[in-house]
Every structure is written in C-alpha cells, then in structure tokens.
Amino acid sequence: MRPWTVSNCRRRRSRQMQLSMSPARRSRKSTGVTTAGRRLSVLATLLSSSSAGLMERWSIYIDIEGFSALYGQENQVLQALGVLAEGILFIGRECYPKTPDRLFAHQTGDGFIIVSEFGAEKLDRPLAISMALLRHVAAFGRFAKAAISQGEFADVRGCYPSSVRDAAGDNGHLGLGDGMMTLFPVMGAALIKAFKLAENSPSGPLLTVAATERHRIPSDLVVRQTTNPDVLSIDWIHSPLPLAYSLSHAARLNNPSVADLEGRLRTYCHTQKLKPDWVSNVSTLLGVPECPTAC
To answer: What is this structure's pTM?
Structure first.
C-alpha cells in the first residue's frame, strides 16, 4: 500500500471518479473537455503549488491559553473561546469575504487553524489578523497564543473509504446508531507546521514565527529572539501595525490600549497559578514589566 500523501489521495480520488463515469464521459474527460476535468486540473495545480515553486498558503494556529487548566473551574475560559470564534467570524465576513482574499478556518479543540486562499510574499496580513484576535480576546480578560506558518492545505475526504464517504453528509457527520462521528475534512502542512511551531514556542500568550521567516516580517515590528533559536516572538502589544488596527475597526473587534493590555496581563499574573516562565516571558518577550507578586 502506498504511504499516505496528499498527492496519493488526489490520484485515488481521481481514479474513483473515472471509474464511476460512463465510457463516454471518461472519453470526454480524457480529452479535457468537461468542466469537471478542468476543475480537477486547476485543483491539482493549486494543491501542488509548493512543488511548482509557487508561494504556499500562510496559516495561523491560535488557541486559548490555560484552557485545560481552567476548564471546569470557570465559565470565562469557555466564553473566551467563543470570543475568539467571534473575532475570526467578523474578520472573515467584514474584511476578507471574497476571492482571492478569503479565509478558511477550522476549530481544533480549544483553538482554530486559519488558512489563506493563496500565498503571500510578506506576512503582514497573518500578523495583523493574529494581533487583532489576540487583542480582542485579551479585552475579555483571558489570553490566546498564536503561531504563523505556511504550507499546502487540502480537502482529504477523498482519502476515506467509500463506506465512510457514503455515510457522511456535507457536514461530515456520520451516524453511529444513535451516536455520531464527525470527520475533520482538511489536512496539510499548513496545519501541521503551525501547530508544531506553537508547541515549540516558549510558554506564554505569544505570537511566534519561525526564525527562517524573519525577512517576511515588517521591519517596524518589535521582534525578539526566544530561547529556542528557531522561534521568533512578535510583541503584539507594542508593535505598530496599521493593518491590525484597521481590521479591528472594520470588524468591530475590541482593541484595548497598550496600558489596558499591560494592566490585564498583570492582573492575570496576580490571579492565576502560572508557571514562572509564563510570567517571565510576558516580561522579556512582550515588554510588560513583571509583577512583583506574580506566581
């Protein structure tokens, strides 16, 4: 059996579609006449963009800090997840509703993966979106963490056996008797690399980017090297990025002042049981003076 890859899944899905067609339709498809054939050709070109030397789609993995520790102890952390979802919804609808600027977001537990429609030379847009969302959540008194990466991203439902595909509706729900299974329909390096970067980033409510992408970061942002030489931290509290403010305004998101953000972080340090490096990183990587009585 061939190993799982997006290209293998595309080949399998294409072959299954061909076998399901009548001989006449297969003949027309082989000449590239049908609209479906043209769609598949365009899709294959987009999904193989990395091998063709085109820019990969950027991605943001963002989740709520302390969710597992606070869940069950308070309602606020679950509400913060809703605030994050609201922010993504408003930015997508109000700021990037049409091609070629569309956003694609999927919830993954206590966080979301956000992927662009196309690649970009600079990281201004994912940085601005991340900053706007981090500030929007912070205004609620809880904090998020974001990591920006890039890669291919594809619908992988064609990789599932026909028994699974046939049982799944458009919403990806499969009946298990009176129970239910939900499929996650997409996968790719855009998700995997962003999630891995977040895991390799220091503790704290940080915005991180791989060190290899420094040339794509606007020069006027406050960028600090973390203890991991492969990871950079962007100071989302003090960095001036006009696009982030524009997004917050257009999407009607909360956009606290620098003093307000610093005050909320100090309060959080005072009231939560945090690891010493979490508090230390707030000071060294986000430029917020460490609280004298922080945990």
So the answer is: 0.78
